[in-house]
Design goal:
By secondary structure, the protein is α/β, with parallel strands linked by helices. The protein is about 35% helix and about 20% strand. The protein binds iron/sulfur cluster (SF4). Iron/sulfur cluster binds next to loops.
Amino acid sequence: MKYKYLYGPVPSRRLGFSLGVDLVPFKTCSLDCVYCQLGRTTNLTIDRKEYSPTAEIIDELNQYLKSSPSLDFITFSGSGEPTLHSRLGEMIGLVKENYPQYKVAVLTNGTLFCRGEVREEVKRADLLVPSLDAVSEPVFKRLNGPHHGLNLEEIISGLIQLRSEFEGEIWLEVFIVPNLNDSETELQVLKEAIERINPDKVQLNTLDRPGAESWVVAARKERLEKIASYLPRAEVIAKFPSEKRTGAYSKDIEASIVSTLKRRPCTASDLSRILNLHPNEVNKYLHALLEEEKVKLEEGERGLFFRVG
Ligand code: SF4
């Protein structure tokens, strides 16, 4: 069966072997971050609705999970902001009730937790990974391009409220963009906000694939490590763990490559690692896809990246 809303499973930096569930159409988001690996936000919104048909997503989940694949997490994330989907809670509930052997994570930009209904919907997840990159208004606007209906103080209060209600783990992700949110002043207010939010972990990330804006560059490892030593419970996110295989993994190599690249640009070696293919095999397909102009090539900090669209 070809899946429309499920992707992977992929080895992820944080979650091990994770099956992704994509709940909203491409770049439907409440933010328009300069570093977004999916490009510019095309639908900047804070309206919650059933962006993709819940019944179809549930069908795909049932279909995929009936073979009891080996997974570390089922992760609601994808190509936009998952908490914008108005029936997210129902889908988390379905997994927890019918497939209790799997842990559920939600990767989110954290902007909607100021709404009680959103906190209520995620409460059965095992892990929430919200983002908070900036605490001063000008940096937040420049870095995250928020929808005009969002208020930074309310977002931070929402995260504090979430911590007091949510029983699972919260790992707060901070994406560092040099010269934007790594000044002493910004880091100091960020530290104060983190202390108020009190997440289980703080994970520092930086660019490793092309972002929405070409001027955005990666922070150096030493700088990230220094910031990690300043912020409470912070760590620099590690590299991908080693791969595992599952019997449910797609055998359609070209489709797998295109589907991976639709979600984020990758180098040939990323694809080789993600799809568990020999690099020569990946290159053979990439050459064909380039010739047919189904993928594009561009230069990034780590070398040449392939992207779709
Ligand atoms: S990085 Fe996440 S929150 Fe930011 S624009 Fe992209 S999808 Fe939205």
